[in-house]
Design goal:
The chain is of the alpha+beta class. About 25% of the residues lie in helices and about 25% in strands.
């Protein structure tokens, strides 16, 4: 059988440029109307019994080439378990991995994918639970629903939203974990949180980019996390409808869930530098981080982004905009494409299951602070 490479499916992205013996040369396709690219997801058939080497030859021009060193490709034969390919390296601008193929078909991806089919199944499953309300806040440029699931009866208005950058698929795994915990009737902490707060969860802010196999942008090549100051129906209806819904409810706590290509750790970024910053208000953000670090070995406080200087915060980014607009304790959670090096897993790296478990810790930490917000 001849080897075939295919990415013509939900979230697929790769271009085969040539096969030389047991070596396949590949390129990642740019986001539509954008220069961003880094996400890849494709399948290989007809290679059973062979050891193949894959070379992504345009890796140096990707959005975050400094993220490739130390990264390991994810591989699956059943699209359920996504293991790291140990023999992955980056040198001379090429991401390369070699692996023995022992099945008729195998899939490779930048991180374990989260399909639109799984998204729809999650929405249907959670919406069927008691006390859950589904709202379609609006539609994307391609006409896909922007789903929001609201849970709880308390007065504190809490928002979790994910996948503004569609290639950061670990974020929707996080949201799956959060939703499952919130509807668990045996989880006393979640039930107590539901009594004190109303939680609004948007599992996927960018369904078009997710389906198209984009790294960072929507169908128009727009980075949604640079649209929160002036979203428009023409460029960023996804942000516009979510921000409008937030205007209706108000926000006391918000978490924007992301993935980081380079830093091998989970960390939070805050809203230092907004015009309305005060040290007592910012201390609530710092206290949340300290409590989360104490709650789980899968979170840490040492690694992260440089803080903005006073008056320099970018208000087009959601965390800064929501802190300024609502006085919210607002934050960005970043999870790695690599692993959380302080608590590593050599086989799976950072994974869907660990993303879901981190969501549980985030909610437990929020429940312990909700009265202080």
């Amino acid at each position: 059988m001849s080897i075939t490479v295919n990415a013509a499916f939900d979230s697929g992205n790769i271009r085969l440029t040539g096969i030389e013996g047991d070596t396949l040369n590949l390129e990642i396709v740019r986001d539509h109307q954008s220069d961003f690219y880094q996400w890849f997801h494709f399948r290989v058939a007809g290679a059973k019994g062979r050891r193949l080497t894959f070379r992504i030859t345009n890796a140096a021009g990707s959005a975050y080439p400094f993220g490739w060193p130390g990264y390991r490709t994810r591989m699956s034969t059943d699209r359920e378990a996504w293991r790291q390919v140990a023999d992955t390296d980056y040198a001379d601008g090429v991401l390369r991995w070699s692996v023995e193929i022992d099945s008729d078909v195998v899939w490779f991806a930048y991180f374990a994918p989260y399909s639109m089919e799984r998204h729809d199944a999650l929405v249907a499953r959670i919406t069927a639970e008691p006390g859950v309300t589904l709202r379609e806040l609006g539609q994307s440029l391609d006409g896909r629903a922007i789903d929001c699931l609201s849970i709880g009866t308390g007065p504190k208005q809490v928002w979790f939203y994910a996948r503004q950058h569609p290639g950061e698929s670990m974020t929707e795994w996080f949201m799956e974990g959060a939703l499952e915990k919130l509807v668990d009737p045996t989880d006393a902490t979640a039930q107590a949180l539901r009594e004190k707060a109303t939680l609004h969860l948007v599992p996927n802010m960018n369904p078009d980019g997710s389906f198209r196999g984009h790294l960072r942008t929507n169908a128009a090549g727009v980075n949604l996390n640079r649209e929160w100051h002036t979203p428009t129906a023409e460029r960023s209806p996804e942000v516009l409808c979510v921000r409008n819904a937030m205007d209706e409810t108000g926000v006391v706590f918000a978490m924007d869930v992301h993935g980081d290509e380079a830093i091998p750790a989970n960390f939070l970024a805050g809203y230092e530098g907004i015009p309305a910053w005060t040290d007592p208000h910012g201390e609530k953000f710092y206290e949340y981080g300290r409590r989360l670090a104490a709650a789980t070995p899968d979170f840490q406080l040492e690694l992260g982004y440089v803080k903005s200087q006073p008056g320099t915060a970018n208000l087009s980014m959601s965390t800064n905009q929501l802190a300024e607009r609502f006085g919210a304790v607002s934050m960005t959670l970043e999870m790695p494409f690599k692993d959380h090096d302080l608590n590593p897993d050599p086989e799976f790296g950072w994974s869907p299951e660990r993303s879901k478990t981190l969501a549980h810790s985030c909610l437990d930490t929020l429940a312990g602070m909700i009265d202080e917000l």
